[in-house]
Write a structure and sequence with these properties.
Largest sheet of chain A: 8 strands, mixed
CATH superfamily of the largest domain in chain B: Glutaredoxin
Number of domains of chain B: 2
Number of strands of chain A: 39
Distance between the termini of chain B: 28 Å
Strand order of the largest sheet of chain B: 2-1-3-4
Bound molecules: iron/sulfur cluster, FE2/S2 (inorganic) cluster
Distance between the termini of chain A: 56 Å
Shape of chain A: globular
Number of helices of chain B: 7
CATH topology of one domain in chain A: Rossmann fold
Strand content of chain A: 15-25%
CATH architecture of the largest domain in chain B: 3-Layer(aba) Sandwich
Oligomer: heterodimer
């Protein structure tokens, strides 16, 4: 069948759609609601094309090709239509970053997104690096949003196992609903309610588990936006390696793609669109393998205590201990979670080196539980590759050598413990339940000194019989020796694994360890199953009575100003008495939490209170925003830093962005009181992110609001409004910029040649705040400064902005992991209270 | 219309309703209507039972049901307040009366107050246009309503309830 696409004659296949045919020939047609795993739906209309002889604009994803069709995919009319369709869709999405004039610069300066609570734009979206909507909007040249977009103020759902859901980002493409139906035979989630209230949900607001979700994760895999995300994986960003391998939690042996960042597994998903994998395959691999509890160094028993040693010392000790337990005194106990290669080496070692008949391979039961009790009387020494020998039997052995992944009673009483690499950390082969051989491909690095099991055993063998043991250089040599033709191995399978349809079928044990002990989401699933944790999330905040004499550091008021930004009023008379404009405090939420610096937004000496404006970004600030009225913070230190020099400058332009809008209230007032003309410019992504308009108007001579998407006030960043002012002939004597590093950086760059002094506040990068730790070191004009004591205000034109960025991006993988665990929802996601946002003004 | 039934009663009765409709998707709306007619609202156990019978997920049924404003998901209140929106009442500013009810009860039409006492409903014409604007509570007609009168009446009902529970 011949069709013509954009003037090119191509050969179409019967039954395929225009989109499929075009994509096959490398002709790209933008599309959104359709997905290769799903049957056509035709909902978003982004994929429209022109077909000669057909009226209107058919959707290419759902129109089958026909002989002789003449199709055009790239006309100007189509581009315009598509752009408008996307524009309409973006009215219900935090879309400011898409139409931002500095989008490219922003992406360059901060390629990673920030791990916030509520996403208010791409820059704070977990999906940023892989977003289909972003790509589409760039391709279609979306540059403006026609009317002010709508933000839904839906609380972010993060108390479900594994899955975070921020419905404020949902574009209702329906991919999740359709894949759930396709993979599960029924849709656990569906569109509920109507018109502007329509959203993805479960019947009667049940939780996912009650609604029958098996946590197969398929919905996350197809969601084109940041709405549905894998809580563990979400902030790791774009993976740098994807490896196709086999899941070995059970003998279904599903094909998986393991995503790694820096050789660390961060996400896993089923390899084939047609089959879902089970909860373990999708969600339990990275968190399990990355668990901080993993054994990382070898240990040997010295005078009753286990001491860390090098791998060489440990294997040396093994050989010494085993020397006197040859023959029937020795046994090797493993289970079928070890690869065929591992087991080949174990067996060879037992029979040829130890000359013992006692090689035991246990087959775990349906739940993955494996126990070994049948130990012959004469056995006095044993090597185990997992914790499956009951502890009662420990005393039967004189020597226990434990190859394992996690500490257990068994490893704690062993004579030698060797950490081993398993699962996605190794290559080899395994048998599935139908005795088919499946390949295992190394996808990530094991922790610490851990080595593959066969390798550790070979090390022992080499010491034992250096001449007789034929050394394997690589695992492939063992595979070859086993006669396995690797070229023939495949990952494909016939049916979906039962556990992907029935949560109860899931495995619970791996190598004698309970999987849920290391995977927080599984504990949440278990709690649901046992009927715990069903307490309603507190929706209404309890009225708290603040005592006449508040305790030190008591939170007197807490409110959400705009999504993800909170205002706290804290009882701290000593600080309020001494505070000066520009100074900051350091907060410790509880004894164990990090110390976080916050600029003093305002204070009241009479009432003894201080006001802070705080954004949720990472674990510490999440803890902070979870503190309720009437509760006390562990400690607040301050005031710290060098105060802003309040004197007569003339005309001062103060530029505030994000948290900085809150941070400059007192500064502005003080400057005005000194006779300065204060022009306050507040920037926000969109109208629903603006706050403190009244407060700032009250403390300045002129107040200008800008928004990136022009939905409230002037369009653009604060610097754009400043430039416009200068063009009208306004004379500015001093510029003060307070906001995120990007905002301060562009202010610095774009005012560099104006001959106006510009100051910026560099405080969100410090630790102890007293000049001791050096965490806040920055270069200003080639000199090293400490933001905490020399700052926070520095000459913006002298700051090394690349260094500031690098320092902020240097948060560790540990921090990302820490925010990623499934936690019981302690954060009260109060309703949005319209204090300052302009959604009410719009009516 | 019986609004207080146990779960087993409901499931028992519902099987009778199911008999009238084939077990396929197209029965979702007719069945929802029957359930609403019979029980006054669509309850979670009713949807679960439907889900089992039709082999369609509860979320999907709920998705369909919540699309239409006609379906209610909470039992009707003890007092059903109907506010007439017929032409005569409309001309005589029934919308202002409705506004007062909305404020007083803090619910939208079609919804029930959280204490389960009142359900607010808009109806087409009560049939006594001479008395416009008209409000009816459980069938009892209140004539020539104003915002103040509405508040008065609601207060009376509330007081009546309080006295009852007080005893
Ligand atoms: S899903 Fe996230 S990254 Fe994509 S356009 Fe929306 S906010 Fe930006
Ligand atoms: S995780 Fe699987 S079962 Fe659960 S809602 Fe998503 S697709 Fe459906
Ligand atoms: S949650 Fe994601 S996949 Fe589902 S409708 Fe929304 S944007 Fe589409
Ligand atoms: S991709 Fe074709 S209509 Fe959405
Ligand atoms: S914060 Fe540690 S030296 Fe400044």
């Amino acid at each position: 069948m011949n069709v013509v696409i954009d003037g090119k004659t191509v050969e179409g296949r019967a039954g395929e759609t225009i989109l499929e045919c075009a994509l096959r020939y490398g002709i790209s047609i933008p599309h959104l609601c359709t997905h290769p795993a799903l049957p056509p739906f035709g909902a978003c209309r982004i994929c429209i094309v022109e077909v000669e002889g057909m009226r209107g604009y058919p959707t290419s994803c759902s129109t089958p090709i026909a002989e002789g069709m003449v199709i055009r995919t790239q006309t100007e009319a189509l581009r315009l239509l598509r752009r408008n369709i996307l524009g309409l869709m973006m009215l219900e999405h935090p879309s400011a970053c898409l139409v931002c004039e500095r989008r490219d610069l922003c992406d360059k300066y901060r390629p990673k997104s920030e791990k916030v609570g509520a996403t208010t734009g791409c820059h704070t979206c977990n999906n940023k690096e892989v977003c289909e909507v972003r790509e589409l909007s760039a391709d279609l040249g979306l540059a403006e949003i026609m009317v002010a977009p709508n933000y839904h103020y839906k609380p972010i759902e993060r108390s479900e196992p594994f899955i975070d859901r921020d419905l404020n980002l949902c574009i209702l493409c329906g991919r999740c609903v359709r894949i759930c139906k396709l993979h599960q035979g029924k849709s656990v989630i569906d569109f509920v309610h109507r018109s502007s209230q329509t959203h993805i949900g479960q019947a009667f607001g049940k939780n996912l588990h009650e609604a029958g979700c098996t946590f197969c994760g398929s919905c996350i895999d197809v969601c084109p936006t940041g709405t549905l995300s894998d809580r563990y994986a979400k902030w790791f960003g774009r993976p740098d390696r994807i490896t196709e391998t086999t899941c070995i939690y059970c003998d279904e042996a599903c094909a998986l793609a393991i995503y790694a960042v820096n050789n660390k597994p961060v996400m896993a998903k089923g390899l084939y669109d047609k089959w879902p994998v089970c909860v373990l395959g999708h969600f339990a691999i990275p968190e399990f393998l990355n668990s901080p509890q993993r054994l990382r160094t070898a240990q040997i028993r010295v005078n009753k205590v286990l001491r860390p040693v090098t791998t060489e010392e440990a294997t040396q000790r093994c050989a010494e201990l085993l020397k006197n337990h040859m023959g029937k005194n020795f046994a090797f106990v493993c289970d079928t979670s070890s690869t065929l290669e591992d087991r080949h080496v174990f067996k060879k070692f037992t029979q040829e080196v130890m000359q013992s008949p006692y090689y035991f391979e246990i087959v775990p039961d349906r739940k993955g539980y494996a126990r070994f009790t049948n130990i012959p009387e004469e056995v006095k020494a044993v090597i185990t590759t997992g914790s499956f020998v009951p502890q009662e039997l420990r005393d039967k052995f004189e020597v226990v050598i434990s190859l394992d992944i996690f500490p257990s009673e068994w490893t704690k009483t062993a004579d030698v413990v060797c950490p081993v690499a398993v699962f996605a950390e190794v290559s080899g082969t395994v048998l599935d339940k139908d005795n088919q051989i499946r390949p295992l491909i190394k996808a990530c690095n094991p922790p610490g000194e851990a080595m593959p099991e066969w390798f550790v055993v070979q090390q022992i063998a080499k010491i034992f019989s250096p001449d007789k043991w034929k050394e394997y250089q690589a695992v492939e040599e063992i595979t070859y020796e086993l006669g396995i033709n690797t070229a023939k191995l495949n990952l494909d399978r016939e049916t979906a694994p039962p556990a992907s349809q029935n949560l109860k079928e899931r495995r619970e044990w791996f190598k004698g360890h309970k999987i849920e002990d290391y995977v927080s989401g599984l504990v949440a699933v278990r709690n649901f199953e046992e009927g715990q944790d069903h307490e309603e999330k507190a929706e209404v905040r309890l009225e708290v009575k603040i005592p006449e004499n508040p305790l030190p550091f008591m939170v007197l008021s807490r409110r959400e100003l705009v999504p993800n930004t909170y205002e706290f009023v804290i009882h701290a008379p000593a600080i309020a008495k001494k505070a000066l404009p520009g100074q900051f405090v350091i907060v410790m939420v509880d004894e164990n939490s990090e110390r976080i610096p916050y600029t003093l937004s305002d204070w009241d000496e009479r009432k003894g209170t201080i006001t802070l404006v705080i954004q949720e970004k990472g674990l510490s600030s999440r803890k902070m925003i979870s503190v309720n009225e009437g509760e006390c913070l562990a400690h607040v230190v301050g005031p710290l830093g060098t105060a802003f020099e309040i004197k007569h400058y003339g005309t001062v332009a103060i530029l505030g962005g994000c948290y900085g809008i809150g941070a400059v209230v007192r500064l502005s007032r003080a400057l005005r009181e000194q006779g300065n003309k204060v022009i306050m410019i507040s920037e926000a992504r969109s109208h629903y992110m603006t706050y403190y308009k009244k407060e700032l108007t009250a403390v300045s001579n002129q107040f200008i609001q800008t928004t990136i998407d022009a939905s409230s006030g002037e369009k653009g960043h604060a610097i754009d409004a400043l430039k416009r002012l200068l063009q009208t002939g306004e004379k500015i004597d001093l510029i003060v910029a307070v906001g995120c590093p990007f905002m301060m950086m562009i202010t610095a760059e774009e005012t560099r040649n104006m001959g106006i002094k510009a100051l910026c506040a560099l405080n969100p990068i410090m630790l102890d705040g007293t000049g001791m730790c050096g965490a806040c070191r920055i270069s200003v004009g080639g000199e090293t400064k400490f933001a905490c004591v020399d700052g926070p205000f520095f000459d913006a034109h002298l700051v090394d902005w690349d260094e500031v960025r690098d320092r902020r991006e240097a948060y560790s993988t540990e921090e990302i992991q820490a925010v990623s665990y499934t936690m019981p929802s302690t954060t009260l996601e109060g309703e949005h209270r319209h204090h300052h946002c302009s959604c009410m003004e719009r009516g | 219309m019986n609004s207080s039934h146990s779960e087993s009663e409901l499931v028992f009765g519902i099987q009778e309703l199911f008999k009238k409709h084939p077990a396929r998707r197209s029965s979702i709306i007719p069945l929802l209507q029957e359930i609403q007619e019979h029980y006054g609202y669509v309850s979670p156990p009713a949807v679960d039972a439907m889900s089992e019978y039709l082999g369609v997920s509860a979320s999907e049924i709920y998705g369909v049901a919540s699309f239409y404003t006609q379906f209610k998901f909470v039992p009707p209140g003890k007092y059903v307040i109907q506010i007439c929106q017929g032409t005569a009442c409309h001309v005589r500013a029934s919308s202002i009366v409705l506004e007062a009810l909305r404020e007083e009860l803090k619910v939208e039409p079609g919804h029930t107050t959280s204490d389960g006492l009142f359900t607010l409903e808009r109806v087409a014409c009560v049939g006594c246009c001479a008395l416009a604007p008209v409000m009816a509570i459980n069938g009892k007609v209140y004539a020539q309503m104003t915002q103040d009168k509405v508040r008065e009446v609601i207060k009376e009902y509330r007081q009546k309830e309080e006295n009852k529970t007080g005893i």
